[in-house]
Amino acid sequence: MALVGSKLRYLLVIYAAFSAIQYGLRYKSYDVSPKQFKTVAGKAAASPTSKQALSTLLVGMRSHYEPILPRSVEWHAIQLGSLSIRIFPIYTAFTEYAAAFSAPFATSGRAGLHWANSTCTVLSGQVGRISDDTQGDAKETFTQGNNFRHGQFESYVYQLEKDTLVACYGRGFLPLSSTAHITAGISAGEPLSVVRFYLAQAGNYYTQIAQSVQRVFQHYKARASGEL
Ligand SMILES: *[C@@H]1O[C@H](CO)[C@@H](O)[C@H](O)[C@H]1NC(C)=O
């Protein structure tokens, strides 16, 4: 009886945490507009080479979101489920991200289950996928300029062709995705590349926090001097 009671309490705590996060995600404000990201990514997809596509994406994002973006962005190794790909993290926060993913060689595997809705644009190459939830073999294929959505808690097997570059923006509870990323990285024998990635992101969080503190400060300064 005591055991059942404590298990129930455990479940209730998990449920309460889930609901609280869900509520928070619905009502919080986000920094990046999905529509604007799609427009920028669409422009990038029209570039003749993937190198130009990436720089168009970065320049486009900077033109809208300069203050919150890291000063320099580099490629990082990332293991997503069984996909060995590279990530170019343009913007990473606890509840939203904008990034490019690249597969220099053909690779396939599950990208994992995430508590986040992501919308992606293929900048070059080709993405094929099949949902784990649908019965039968409804394969989808996306080529340059196509968009696809990976909704929260959805699971797909992906196939990325050689030299595929994809731009994604997503919102959700990203610390959970980090758990998947970290365990996949470690099990692939790559703990150091995981550490390198999070050290870089920690630097970005610091910039973002400093930026919001600055904004609040400017706001009160302006108010104190009667400009507001
Ligand atoms: C993801 O999309 C679904 C359906 O549009 C929505 O109900 C849910 O709140 C979204 N989740 C997040 C984390 O934004």
General description of the model:
- Keywords: Endoplasmic reticulum, Membrane, Transmembrane, Transmembrane helix.
- The chain has a six-stranded antiparallel β-sheet, sandwiched between helices. A four-stranded antiparallel β-sheet has the order 4-9-6-7, with no helix packed on it.
- The longest helix is centred in the C-terminal third of the chain and has 34 residues, at 191-224.
- 45% of the residues lie in helices and 29% in strands.
- It has a single domain (19-219), classed as Jelly Rolls (Sandwich).
- Helix 2 (34-45) runs antiparallel to helix 3.
- With 228 residues, it is of the alpha+beta class.
- Bound molecules: 2-acetamido-2-deoxy-beta-D-glucopyranose (NAG).
- Residues 25-26, 116-117, 151-152, 171-172 line the site of 2-acetamido-2-deoxy-beta-D-glucopyranose.
- Low-pLDDT stretches are none
The residue fraction in helices comes out at 40-55%
Give the overall average pLDDT: 87
Q: Strand content of the residues, in percent?
A: 25-35%
How far apart the termini lie comes to 61 Å
Query: What is the CATH class?
Result: Mainly Beta
**SS class:** alpha+beta
Number of H/I helices: 5
Q: What is the CATH topology classification name?
A: Jelly Rolls
Radius of gyration: 20 Å
**Mind summarizing the main beta sheet?**
6 strands, antiparallel
Strand order of the largest sheet: 1-2-3-10-5-8
User: Helix and strand string, N-terminal first?
Assistant: HHHEEEEEEEEEEHH
Ligands bound here?
A: 2-acetamido-2-deoxy-beta-D-glucopyranose
